[in-house]
Amino acid sequence: MSNFELYYWPVPFRGQFIRGLLAHGGCTWDEHDAGAIEEIMGRDAGKQPIAFMGPPVLIDRERNFALSQMPAIALYLGERLQLLPPGAEGRALTAKIVNDANDVIDELTLDGGREMWTPEKWEAFVPRLQEWIRIFEDTGARHGLTGDSGFMLGTETPGVADVVTAILWTTVADRFPVIRRIIEDTSPVIWAYSSRMKETAPLAALSRRAFDDYGDAYCGGQIEKSLRKVAG
């Protein structure tokens, strides 16, 4: 039996952070299809594994524990799989990085498709995207990160902050050539570091599996079609 169950749509997007942490931690997990996700979303809150509005939802079978919200799940897995730095400061910085990543993907999809991209909106957004990339670069630089060595928070081994950062930038770059060029040009350090993390065996296998399972899909729906018109 697998260690975990994951409820998330059959696209990378927010669920890929959770998949990345599970893969990096050497865990096994089962995923449920869209029909199963819709079924538990439609239940009364008291009959859900945890009261939630939308996926991801992770169930830890060994501990009989369920959790929703990507940042909460990421930090739980950090504790569970010993992927967090020691001390309150390192844990707080990890939470900051996870929430920054969550903000970036929300901005890339205009808050889940509340609006659609136009060339004018995209042009106005690019400087903000570049600033996000610099924020990640500066966070790592303060802890000795370079493209060739080191990790986001100065740890000896990669942790939640590293997996989340690498998944954030490489997943979107692999699917949107315009965004890849923006990352490469804005921060060669973040691009080299994220690529270095992606080449680790668990994340490399996960990347291949994502293309096998989802093709070129990123977030799906009309917002992905809109994003492809300006960044694809």
UniProtKB/TrEMBL annotation:
Coiled coil: none annotated. It comes from the Bacteria. Pfam families: GST_C_8. Residues 2-85 form the GST N-terminal domain. SUPFAM superfamilies: GST C-terminal domain-like (SSF47616), Thioredoxin-like (SSF52833). Signal peptide: none annotated. This is GST N-terminal domain-containing protein. It comes from Agrobacterium pusense.
